[in-house]
Design brief:
With 234 residues, the chain is mainly beta. The chain has a single domain (2-233), classed as Beta Barrel (Porin). 3% of the residues lie in helices and 70% in strands. The chain contains 1 helix and 12 strands; from the N terminus they run αββββββββββββ. The protein has one helix spanning 2-9, and strands spanning 20-32, 38-51, 55-68, 71-86, 91-102, 107-123, 127-142, 146-161, 166-175, 185-195, 200-211, 222-233. It has a 12-stranded antiparallel β-barrel. Strand 8 and strand 9 (166-175) form a beta hairpin. It is globular. The chain starts with a helix and ends with a strand.
Length: 234
């Protein structure tokens, strides 16, 4: 039924917009030595390619590595591919596939398949705000078991430009679990960016990930990550 509804309104697609690539890459490195020896590496990539005016392919990747002395204290990664079909200036539909891992949260591999819709509430020179509603199927290999889970996915993101060089972004994602109602998740991030040239900017971000059911004994419910990175957009 949902697929038929999407197809029926596709005749009202927005006017074609410029095709081509957009890219955002970021990297953060912190190393200390002497009385305290620590190292932290973070990398992120978000690229999109628009074609035919109403089709968008998006690729994203992220990697985080933390080490205190000779002990690895944090290691996570993710890779995703998503297709969007623009229906109108405000509405689009999407299908995505991603894989991620975080051994310190008890997740060896987690495969996510997403299907849903995206609606833009505000889009102007100073503020962009959109929301997404969809379904997620997850297959995950945990430290002690494997699971197949079904979620709803609610996501919203807003970006505010305070000046031509300074902006802030906030997003929140809520994942209620249909398979196990106690095992819901909440992820959110607040970031602040300051441009230092037409391409480069400095970005500071605070990420919080909450899992209501622990994946393994001895873990905690909330993971918190603060990063400062150099970002290149072109």
């Amino acid at each position: 039924m949902a697929i038929a509804a999407f197809a029926s309104i596709s005749v009202y697609a927005a006017d074609p917009t410029p095709d081509g690539w957009k890219n955002e890459s970021q990297a953060g490195i912190v190393v200390t030595s002497g009385n305290t020896e620590t190292s932290s590496l973070s990398f992120g990539e978000a690229a999109s390619y628009q074609f035919g005016g109403t089709n968008v392919l998006k690729i994203n990747a992220a990697y985080l590595y933390q080490k205190n002395g000779n002990v690895v204290s944090g290691k996570s990664w993710s890779l995703g591919l998503r297709y969007e079909r623009i229906i109108s200036d405000q509405f689009s539909i999407f299908l995505g596939q991603s894989v991620e891992g975080n051994q310190f949260s008890g997740v060896n591999q987690r495969y996510n398949t997403d299907l849903g819709g995206k609606y833009t509430f505000v889009k102007d020179d100073e503020l962009t705000w959109f929301g997404e509603l969809g379904y997620r199927y997850t297959y995950q290999n945990l430290t002690l078991l494997t699971q197949k889970l079904h979620y709803a996915r609610l996501y919203t993101e807003a970006e505010k430009k305070f000046s031509p060089t300074v902006s802030a972004k906030y997003w929140v994602e809520y994942l209620p679990n249909f398979t196990n109602t106690d095992d819901w998740q909440l992820n959110t991030e607040l970031s602040l960016s300051a441009a230092i040239s037409s391409i480069f900017s400095v970005k500071s971000a605070y990420l919080l990930r909450y899992d209501n059911v622990l994946n393994s004994v001895g873990l905690v419910h909330t993971d918190k990550t603060f990063t400062t990175s150099l970002v290149a957009k072109f």
